[in-house]
Amino acid sequence: MAVDYRFSPALTARLLGLTLVGSAVLISLATLGVAVLDLHTAVLLVPVVLVLVALVALMAWSSGWVVRLGDEGYRVRRIRGAGVPAARWKDVEDAVTTERHGSPCVVLRLRDGRTTTIPAEVLHVDREVFARTVVEHLQRGHGITRL
Question: Is-above-0.85 flag for pTM?
Fold first, then answer.
């Protein structure tokens, strides 16, 4: 059974806030250009359309899954610097919890020495529940049925 995790609402709200501030600056500059340079008011349509496209793109980007834990393995996307984006559970040696840059993380260590680091704070799940779910999937992937 696959389990999907999305970005936390706090992270999504921060990204939306930054997008709105950037949009306000862009529209303000266009308005200033219309007022000072005596441009046609239709010039304001360009930044407004760009802002709407950016907001729709941000909503679509943040609504999908970020981490997927399946029966065969895991996949991670949209987390910069996570390391290996996907692997089979049989290729994972172990999972450990640690702290990186002041943020709690789950690190999946692969048998070939590579790692996948998943910062728990960016996910919409309690970090203890997430770590426990990762371990359960890892144990099932290794054929351990008694949890």
Answer: no
pLDDT tens string 24-33: 999 999 999 8
Q: 43: closest CA among 56, 30, 59?
A: 30
- Measured in degrees and rounded to the nearest 5, phi and psi for residue 37 equal -90, 0
Distances (CA, A) of 35 to 48, 64, 113: 16, 41, 60
Of 58, 108, 60, the C-alpha closest to 85 is 108
How does 83-96 read in b/e, with b if 16+ C-beta sit within 10 Å?
bbeebebeebeebe
Three-state DSSP class for residue 146: coil
Residue-wise pLDDT tens digits, 130-141: 999 999 999 998
Residue holding tokens 């290794």?
Answer: 142
**Backbone conformation region of residue 29, classed left if phi is above 0, alpha if psi is from -120 to 50, else beta:** alpha
Partners of 94 in beta bridges: 109
